[in-house]
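Tokens help. One example:
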Amino acid sequence: MHLAFSGLSGTSAPSARGRGAARLAAATLVSALVAAGVLAGAGAAAAEGTPQNQGGATATIEGLKTYGEAVVHEDGSDLKVAAGLFEMSVEGGGTLQTYCVDIHNPTQKDAKYQETPWSSTSLGTNKAAGKIRWILQNSYPQVNDLAALAGRAGVTGLTEQDAAAGTQVAIWRYSDGAHVDAVDPQAEKLADYLEKSARDLAEPKASLTLDPPAVSGRPGGRVGPVTVHTNAHAVTVTPPANAAISGVRIVDGTGKVITSAQDGSRLFFDIPGDAADGTAELTVQASTTVPVGRAFASESRSQTQILAGSSESTVSATASATWAEKGAIPALSARKNCAVGGVDISAANKGDKPFTFELMGTEYSIPAGTSRTVTIPLQEDQAYDFTITGPNGFAQRFSGVLDCKTQGSAGGESTQTLSEPSPASVGGTSGGTNLAATGGTSATPVIAGVAIALVVIGGAALVLLRKRETPAGD
């Protein structure tokens, strides 16, 4: 078994803006590597593998829609920023409203986001994350009676823009530890009220997940179970794409074929006894509202968001099964773990021989009939793209960027500013300059040029690494 790994470390720079450019360049490089097909040590089988997610809603950010202004006080300077609600369009249908929990990092235009547990973001190590959820549940847009909200905050009136700005400012004080004030006096009073009133609340459960996301076993029986966790009334179950040919069925614990399930349902892959060694994947999908307080993260290093409101939206999750007649039978899944600064690889082996693989110079062995979690330590903003291979053509690829800290917690980086902000990406201005960028920046072409150069350098480095690798036997 063999694991190929490629990573990019966060780069230090003498200035705050330099650090920001380095972080953005690293994120751009990840996309460039994928587009160019530069996957370290990934052969044809590995290229077929797809990165896993934890399930839930997938959405594309559309920019700020309801916002006011705020001022960030940092390093002796005052920077004016747009503060308010973003909107996202959900794949399959639906709309989300979100606030930012990463004030110093810009949003990337049309970035794709995935519903994500707090543990995979800066919220996972933020002791005040529960207070942010309280703010979301007790302010705009969850409280859309602006007169009532104004009364609670002790102000004479609030516009939607003031309510959004004040809510965002209160969130930033907890998410980033930012010294920030709303420009409008009413919005500032709302921010103060929310900050002082906030109480700890637990992280909301995911809209839809499958646990575990990967299982393994022998043909001639049921492989699983995979348990459905959802707030939806019901989910549809889609069998493997090649089910008609492979004969693999999705059944319940009694062996009955199922096409729908609900929270707590246990799903199994029913594998024919004469099935050749292989893999299959099932998909579950539902329409539901995503719980307020769920985090949304992007692999393009676009600023992390937290959910403030959801329409009825499409959510989905997938789970895979691997089976074989003999030998090692691995099941792998991955999840970012910001508490330890790395990616956790969960490996289970339902076979009759150990499953062995090499991980960053260390060989790991999962004995038959056991499971183990291996943590890959990474630096903040480090891009990773690696593939674990096994017997019978097994290959599982994992890729992404470790994004566990806000810019403030990473070193007090200054907010980037634009001389002429784009209303489409920033959310508009109030008729002045020096509005901090919360969307895509005009530096993108320069960053892209740096990334292209790094791809060339990185490609040469990957070739050297490949020459030094010693293939591991099955």
Q: What stands out?
A: Confidence is low (pLDDT under 50) at residues 1-52, 408-474.
